[in-house]
Amino acid sequence: MHKTAIFEGITIMGSSTIRQTLMSWHVADYFPVGLFGSVMGLTGLAVSWRLAHELYGTPSIIPVVLGWLAVIDFVCVAGAYGLKLITAPEAVRTEFYHPVSGNLFGTIPVSLLLLPIVLARIALRLAQIMWVTGAIIMVIFALIIVNRWMSDRQQVEHATPAWIIPVVGMLDIPIALPTLSLPPMHGVMMLGLAVGMFFALPLFTLIFSRLLFEAPMPDALLPSLMILLAPFAVGFSAYVATSGQVDLFAEGLYALTLFIFAVLMGRMRHLATCCPFRVSWWAVSFPLAATSIAALRFEGAHSSQISRGIAEFILFVTTIVIGGLLVRTVVGVLRGDLRTLSS
């Protein structure tokens, strides 16, 4: 009994010491869930450059390096947010139930749905497990958010582009499936495509109406405007992955993507001067990457000088923007400015 008591005391002291050590790492309490958007952006850029390699013979090392950067980024971000969950659970709870930032939790399952595209060639089993996990979490999260919207009265000023992520994120379910060597899952692909496209219409209309008739969004939220590209750009890739062809409907989605891209690029050109850099700027990365992927896939199906020029231009813009975001974020982290950048 005496030895048992000693061992129990050591265990309690050890657990206390570990918890105190974890609590001393204050970086976790302010770490934003939205930084998973950087994983989405880097993964999308890797896929874009893989398509560029297949179409134009660009160096194959580029998508490989970008893919590994996305994997490393996911491990770091997931580790940091896991630490936040352990040491500051109330902060996580507050973030989850926030009417705006709560929607950004959808970036976690979306990251799990996209990373298998770059992992499939080097770790197929891991990619399969990751995709299945991401698909299950995505469906559950979409159900939770839709139920939340229907259960409580929502405020119009909270209708920001981030609302698109939880349910329209279902469109990401079909995208990786053709590369994963899983049994046929046409029904699952149709579920993601149908739910994502159905909710894209009212959500886009609601957010667009809020932009027209309500007070302008705060400068800090301006980068999220680029999320309005996602229903059309991701919808194009999801539809092509499900149907296996670039038909008239896919062409219509691509045309809408280019139109919204032109509108938003005109709005976003002053972003660098309107507000200080924050990690929330990563919201522009994945919509741009998804647009680049759509342009390259369209070019592969309907090649012409015009379509090639558009695809190359969007890939160039996407690479410059995401490269700038990556450099600025790394510099900020090395300077110890993560708390400021997360505000």
Could you characterize the architecture of this molecule?
The protein is globular. By secondary structure, the protein is mainly α. The model is unreliable at 1-15 and 18-25 (pLDDT under 50). It has a single domain (26-342), classed as Glycosyltransferase (Alpha/alpha barrel), CATH 1.50.10. The chain has helices spanning 2-23, 36-56, 61-87, 89-97, 107-119, 124-151, 164-168, 186-213, 230-243, 248-268, 271-274, 285-301, 305-334, 338-342.
Secondary structure: elements and pairs:
Blueprint: H1 2-23, H2 36-56, H3 61-87, H4 89-97, H5 107-119, H6 124-151, H7 164-168, H8 186-213, H9 230-243, H10 248-268, H11 271-274, H12 285-301, H13 305-334, H14 338-342
Architecture per CATH nomenclature, i.e. the level-2 architecture: Alpha/alpha barrel
CATH superfamily: Voltage-dependent anion channel
Assign a percent range to the helix content: over 70%
Question: Structural class from helices and strands?
Answer: mainly alpha
| Basic shape | globular
Low-confidence region ranges: 1-15, 18-25
Total tally of structural domains: 1
N-end to C-end Cα span: 52 Å
- Percent strand: under 5%
How many β-strand stretches? 0
Q: What is the level 1 CATH name?
A: Mainly Alpha
Q: Helix tally?
A: 14
Task: Tell me the major beta sheet.
Answer: none
> What is the rounded Rg?
21 Å
Q: CATH topology, which one?
A: Glycosyltransferase
SSE pattern: HHHHHHHHHHHHHH
